[in-house]
Amino acid sequence: MISVAAPALALGISLIVQPEHELGAASLFLLAVVAASVAGGIWAGIGSSVLGFLFLNYFFTEPLHTLRVHNRDDVVALVVFLVVALLVGWVVSRAVSERDRATRREREARLLNLFTTKALSGEPLDRVLNDLAAALVDALRLSSCSIAAAAAGRSYEVRRARPGTSDGSTVELPITSGEVTFGTLRASSPVHEELVPEDRRLVQAAASQVAVYLERARLDAEIAAARLDVERSQARAALFSSVTHDLRTPLASIKTAVTSLLQVDVRFDPSQARELLQTVLEETDRLNRLVGNILGLAQVRSGALLPVKEPTALDEVVESVLHRLEPTLGGVRVRTIFRDAPDVPVDPVLIDQVVSNLLENAVRFSPVGGEVVLSVAPWRSVVQVRVADQGPGIPADDRDRVFEAFTQLGATAPDASGGSGLGLAISRSIVLAHGGRIWIEGAPGGGTAVVFELPVREAAPVQQEVAAREGSS
Fold first, then answer.
1. Contacts (Cβ under 8 Å, ≥6 apart) of 373
2. Do 122 and 110 lie in a common domain?
3. Could you tell me the pLDDT band of residue 174, with boundaries at 50, 70 and 90?
4. Quick one: 92 and 164 in the same domain?
5. Strands 167-177, 180-190: pairing kind
6. How far is it, in rounded angstroms, from Cα 340 to Cα 333?
7. 3-class DSSP state of 458
8. CATH number for the domain including 271?
9. How far is CA 82 from CA 51, 265, 415, in A?
10. Which of 265, 339, 366, 421 could form a disulfide with 406 if both were Cys (CB 3.0 to 4.6 A apart)?
């Protein structure tokens, strides 16, 4: 159509503006050839050249309105015009074709670069798919692009569209990797337009790349599941080993003391008998604490750790713990600092367990004659409880790791000597279940300070649920 329209328009302009000037008409016909070649390609340029040659002969060469030519110079001029028009059409169409090819290569390069960048970005898969669909719509001038797929137990529905356009023809491609089909990719061109083969290949490449993303997500999920199984197995083994060791030690002490008391041929004075009975009592309390920690861990991992909250004065909880643990403090001094703190909505039994675990850790690693400082103070909208000792301290890199169950870091960490590695893990879960937080920092002059804070006001139900999930993870 353009090969006819362009020469016809040039003819009309020539007849109106310069009806008797053959040179001016030839220039306009060459311009028409250029326009036809740019718009329609090489064949449009050839058609426009031939029509321009015929129009120039019929309307501007003597004798007019015939295709005969009497003058030999006119024949040469017409042939030269035809050759020049064909050459101009060929050169222009080649230039336009090379421009389009370069543009297409640049577009392909941008898309491939996007594929690579997204593959290495580590962004969430739904965001990657959304960006990929948007890039296809922009690069290929699509009316819309949608991706529907599922992998690793999740479904993904993404659709991006270009405003002001309606879907025409649609290409639907499966998203597959090997024998696994994840979903489909649909690319729609605007109405009355078709995707060229090069664009179809790009859409196919995009579908293949999406399959790579989904396959990686599936493999990552499988790896995470396998890692979780390994961690569970290690946790079970650690629990068995720890419980076996920690149960045997107090049981051995209890059996030794009771066996001594039952010996008929040995007489103990009242102080010796009391000492043996005291040993039995202390080791029984130790067993009770160990069983309590194990039950607490089971509650955390089953999601059954639900605090029964009531307004409680934390300084009274601390005083109760100190009174109960006084026989186990040994040669360690405990200094308390209580500031006017408001009552806090907590489960006093669970918070008692937290303070007990932290105080036992501090005493265990404090040197003989050392001091443990236990303070309760308000801070903004929370109340902070701090337990600081004068022990060897915990390296900064290990301060988060000691809150994991069964973590024992040798002589420099709590729960490492004579403990099961459960105290801090249970304490963290209880604090999180109350909507608070717990951390470790260095104490002035060396040692370790474990700090936890609890909100003065009741946390929202959603926040409590999130905290409970974090504690059980």
1. 334, 335, 336, 337, 386, 387, 388, 443
2. yes
3. very high
4. no
5. antiparallel
6. 23
7. coil
8. 1.10.287.130
9. 10, 135, 97
10. 421
Domain of 259 in residue numbering reads as 228-299
- Residue 142: phi, psi to the nearest 5? -80, 160
| Contact by Cβ (8 Å): 380, 436 | no
Nearest alpha-carbon partner for 160 in 187, 183, 182 = 187
For 206-234, write each residue's pLDDT tens digit: 888 888 888 888 888 889 888 878 876 77
Q: Out of 100, 128, 159, pick the residue that ends a domain.
A: 100
Kindly tell me if the per-residue pLDDT of 154 is higher than 60. Answer: yes
Task: Count the helix, strand and coil residues of the chain and give each as a percent rounded to the nearest 5.
Answer: 60, 15, 25
Confidence at 261, pLDDT banded by 50, 70, 90: confident
- State phi, psi for 393 to the nearest 5 degrees: 85, 175
CATH of the domain at 164: 3.30.450.40
For residue 244, count other CB atoms closer than 10 A to its CB. Answer: 9
Radius of gyration of the chain (CA): 43
Contacts of 55 (CB under 8 A, 6+ apart): 7, 10, 11, 25, 29
Residue 88 domain-assigned (yes or no): yes
Q: Is 247 helix (H, G, I), strand (E, B) or coil?
A: helix
Nearest-angstrom CA–CA distance, 360 and 97 = 81
Rounded to an integer, what distance in angstroms lies between the CA atom of residue 45 and that of residue 4? 10
Check if the beta carbon of residue 158 is closer than 8 Å to that of residue 167: no
Tell whether 210 and 310 lie within a shared domain: no
Which residue among 242, 270, 299 closes a domain? Answer: 299
CB 376 within 8 Å of CB 383: yes
The answer to whether residue 130 is domain-embedded is yes
Q: Of residues 105 and 392, which shows the higher confidence score? A: 392
Q: What pLDDT is stored for residue 471 in this prediction? A: 45
Clarify whether residues 306 and 295 are in a common domain: no
Amino acid at 312: T
What ranges in 365-443 are assigned the alpha helix state H?
A: 423-433
Closest of 208, 196, 193 to residue 111, by C-alpha: 208
Residues ≥6 apart with Cβ < 8 Å to 134: 145, 160
- Give a yes or no: residue 124 inside a domain: yes
- Give the phi and the psi of residue 211 in degrees, each rounded to 5: -60, -40
Same domain, residue pair 331 and 456: yes
- The owner of tokens 């089909």 is 181
Instruction: Note the pLDDT tens digit of each residue in 374-398.
Output: 999 999 899 999 999 988 888 888 8
Query: Bigger pLDDT: 103 or 179?
Result: 179
Q: What is the DSSP string of 250-295?
A: HHHHHHHHHHHHH-TT----HHHHHHHHHHHHHHHHHHHHHHHHHH
Which is nearest to 140 in space by CA: 41, 84, 206? 206
Q: How many domains does the chain have?
A: 4
Both 463 and 317 in a single domain?
yes
267 and 342 housed in the same domain: no
Q: Sign of torsion, CA 453 456 462 468?
A: positive
